[in-house]
């Protein structure tokens, strides 16, 4: 491998810049050249490609978002679009790609890599933590800390008014942010899609004497059709349990922003260096993961196909710690 291309795609996540920096510097350290591809697969097709030197990634480790920008790209889902992308890679002499993104990005990478027998290594960049084979993803810890800070603030007003707050957090059908966010912020409960499928979490919460001993309560709800989101849950409470004074807060995009935490910066840097090592080692079609603080290679097929399970011990921990 002589020239590596880097792109960020799909939803942005804090720590992506730290990953871009690490990939760039590690590739240059190993004698390769680097090209930054802007706006994900879209910029690959439309030729938004720039030579990257070590200075291109100076002073970015602390910045949220992604300097390479990101985009959704419908053309990349078609064989014609992917052929255009392949032609651009050839034109620029890019002979391997590091793709940073979530489930969609890695799905695209997997299809492309197979179609053209082209080496791609992926980095898990998503606040949702919903990729299988890695304990955590880049951006998750920062988002979790942001959620914790927001819930701390809402708690001040919730206790002043004796209110029941439903706070919706992101997760795209995964409950990691809601569950760990609830534990970290001392919330009473979390309503998450993984468990909504099994039982009526709201009914159980209220039957268990929820809020008997407390004047105000905070419940985190993962955004998802399965949970109904914070609005859906609140509407149900107003109908079925009108004794509660209910409020809803949807945290939204602020969860994506902000300077990455130390954990996210370190994770992104380790994974970025590991991605270049993996390419030098002729690895392809693998995502960098972290398990028990060791870097592991997870085949794309595993990372995207399997649903990452919620750790059940956390459910119990939240239940006990919120009595
Ligand atoms: P994320 O990577 O955060 O999950 P998306 O799901 O939006 O974000 O995916 C990002 C991009 O990856 C899409 O806009 C598209 O270009 C590409 N992609 C997603 N799914 C596929 C697919 N099945 N085939 C090819 N490309 C895909």
TrEMBL record:
Q: Which InterPro entries does the entry link to?
A: ATP_PFK, ATP_PFK_prok-type, PFKA_ATP_prok, Phosphofructokinase_CS, Phosphofructokinase_dom, PKF_sf
SUPFAM superfamilies per record: Phosphofructokinase
Cofactor(s) annotated in UniProt: Mg(2+)
Record-annotated residues binding ATP? 11, 72-73, 102-105
**EC number annotated for this UniProt entry:** 2.7.1.11
PROSITE patterns with a match to the protein in the record: PHOSPHOFRUCTOKINASE (PS00433)
Compartment annotation = Cytoplasm
The protein's assembly and partners? Homotetramer.
The family line of this record is: Belongs to the phosphofructokinase type A (PFKA) family. ATP-dependent PFK group I subfamily. Prokaryotic clade 'B1' sub-subfamily.
Q: What is this protein called?
A: ATP-dependent 6-phosphofructokinase
What broad taxonomic lineage does this protein's source fall under?
Bacteria, Pseudomonadati, Bacteroidota, Bacteroidia, Bacteroidales
């Amino acid at each position: 491998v002589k020239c590596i291309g880097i792109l960020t795609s799909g939803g942005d996540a804090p720590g992506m810049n730290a990953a871009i920096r690490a990939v760039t510097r590690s590739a240059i350290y190993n004698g390769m050249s680097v090209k930054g591809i802007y706006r994900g697969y879209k910029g690959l097709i439309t030729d938004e490609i720039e030579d990257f030197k070590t200075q291109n990634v100076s002073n970015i480790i602390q910045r949220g978002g992604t300097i390479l920008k990101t985009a959704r790209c419908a053309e990349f889902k078609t064989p014609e679009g992917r052929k255009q992308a392949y032609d651009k890679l050839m034109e620029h002499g890019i002979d391997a790609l590091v793709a940073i993104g979530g489930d969609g990005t890695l799905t695209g990478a997997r299809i492309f890599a197979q179609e053209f027998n082209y080496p791609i290594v992926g980095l898990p960049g998503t606040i949702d933590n919903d990729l299988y084979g890695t304990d955590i993803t880049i951006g998750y810890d920062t988002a979790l800390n942001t959620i914790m800070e927001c819930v701390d603030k809402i708690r001040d007003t919730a206790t002043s008014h004796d209110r029941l707050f439903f706070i919706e957090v992101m997760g795209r059908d995964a409950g990691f942010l809601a569950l760990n966010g609830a534990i970290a912020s001392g919330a009473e409960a979390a309503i998450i899609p993984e468990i909504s499928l099994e039982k009526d979490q709201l009914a159980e919460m209220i039957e268990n004497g929820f809020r008997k001993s407390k004047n105000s309560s905070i419940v985190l709800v993962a955004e998802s059709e399965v949970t109904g989101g914070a609005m859906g849950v609140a509407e149900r409470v107003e109908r079925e349990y009108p004794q509660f004074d209910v409020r809803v807060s949807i945290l939204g995009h602020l969860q994506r922003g902000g300077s990455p935490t130390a954990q996210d910066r370190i994770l992104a840097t380790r994974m970025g260096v590991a991605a270049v090592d993996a390419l030098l080692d002729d690895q392809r079609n693998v995502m960098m993961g972290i398990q028990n603080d060791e870097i592991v290679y997870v085949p794309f097929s595993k990372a995207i196909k399997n649903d990452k399970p919620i750790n059940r011990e956390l459910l119990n921990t939240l239940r006990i710690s919120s009595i």
